[in-house]
Amino acid sequence: MRIVALAGGIGGARFLRGLKEAVAPGGDPSPSAPAEITVVGNTGDDIHLFGLKVCPDLDTVMYTLGGGIHEEQGWGRADETWSVKEELKAYGVGPDWFGLGDRDVATHVVRTQMLAAGYPLSAVTEALCARWRPGVRLLPMSDDRVETHVLVEDAEGRRAVHFQEYWVRLRAEVPALAVVPVGAEDAKPAPGVLEAIAEADVILLPPSNPVVSVGTILAVPGVRQAVAEADAPVVGLSPIVGGAPVRGMADKVLAAVGVESTAEAVARHYGPGLLDGWLVDTSDADAVPGVEAAGIACRAVPLMMTDTAAAAAMARAALDLAEEVRG
Ligand code: FO1
């Protein structure tokens, strides 16, 4: 079974860890029908800092699936130290609101060096994954530079800021007026992305941010169309439970694109042209008829990723729904 997932950072990575467990319990794939998982990762969160290229969502997926993630934080490396950050601060070199840990810095140095040598991001990601062995094929959505910017207005005036400045420095507390994936319209899908989507048996939209994660991947020309036209069933999981994001601040960027923070509104935002199936949390069971009325098969199951077993149960429910809509 060939599974393709379009993933953002922490929520996407934790779901993928469950998906791996669901298709190969205990890391032991069934030899008769091994599943092959291709992850198309969001690179709109990428940022250039201190001369380094940082790819937060690709790294979060790579570290989470490769066993190197800082579990509580959800991003960055386990057992991290912060000497580089302290030394930069001593030089008065900012920004000080974005933390690159010492272990994490090595990843960015390798990436930046390979990019400078002429390797595309997809090849660099493959090289980094050779160390981490995430057990999935991790592809950036594009080798071209795409950067999500957010139009905000506060005491400092109306301006566009990098997504990381909006998310980390401003903690998404300033109203977002618009979200723009700068460069997306000229970007090409990375090698293998469209092929994986076209050849997939199942396409999953994890409970990642529908605007700045999945939405950015879909904004790369050709990707939305490939997903919509794929033979495979497309099943998504709601990142909104009980009217609020399970984690993160998805409600803030949903407001910027005029979408209500409800499981049903997010399903309608993706739309029946893209989605065949949608999972909502059991606490949102009353949303099921509305989603089905929009032409999307919908089931209510527990969607709180409290641990890998819970994420695996969600992944199994998504694969079951995919089978149902395929039938
Ligand atoms: N998130 C924070 O809240 N503060 C940070 O200083 C921070 C640094 C950071 C460094 C590397 C990395 O891969 C991720 C990092 N994140 C940090 C997470 C990141 O800002 C976001 O959670 C994602 O971009 C959203 O998916």
Helix and strand topology:
Blueprint: E1 2-7, H1 10-23, E2 36-41, E3 47-49, E4 52-54, H2 56-66, H3 83-90, H4 102-116, H5 121-132, E5 137-140, E6 147-154, E7 157-162, H6 163-169, E8 176-182, H7 193-199, E9 202-205, H8 214-218, H9 223-229, E10 234-237, E11 240-241, E12 244-245, H10 250-256, H11 263-270, E13 277-280, H12 288-293, E14 297-300, H13 308-326
Parallel strand pairs: 1-2, 1-9, 2-5, 9-10, 10-13, 13-14
Antiparallel strand pairs: 3-4, 6-7, 6-8, 11-12
**Alpha-beta content class:** alpha/beta
CATH H-level superfamily title of the domain at 193-326: CofD-like domains
- Rg estimate, integer Å: 19 Å
Overall 3D shape: globular
CATH architecture label of the domain at 193-326: 3-Layer(aba) Sandwich
Spell out which ligands are present.
Answer: ligand FO1
| Tally of alpha and pi helices | 13
CATH class annotation of the domain at 193-326: Alpha Beta
Strand element count: 14
Largest sheet: 7 strands, parallel
Low-confidence regions: none
Adjacency order of strands in the biggest sheet: 5-2-1-9-10-13-14
Helix content: 25-40%
Distance between the termini: 16 Å
Instruction: Summarize model confidence as the mean pLDDT.
Output: 95
Which percent band covers the strand fraction? 15-25%
What is the CATH topology of the domain at 193-326? Rossmann fold
Helix and strand succession? Answer: EHEEEHHHHEEEHEHEHHEEEHHEHEH
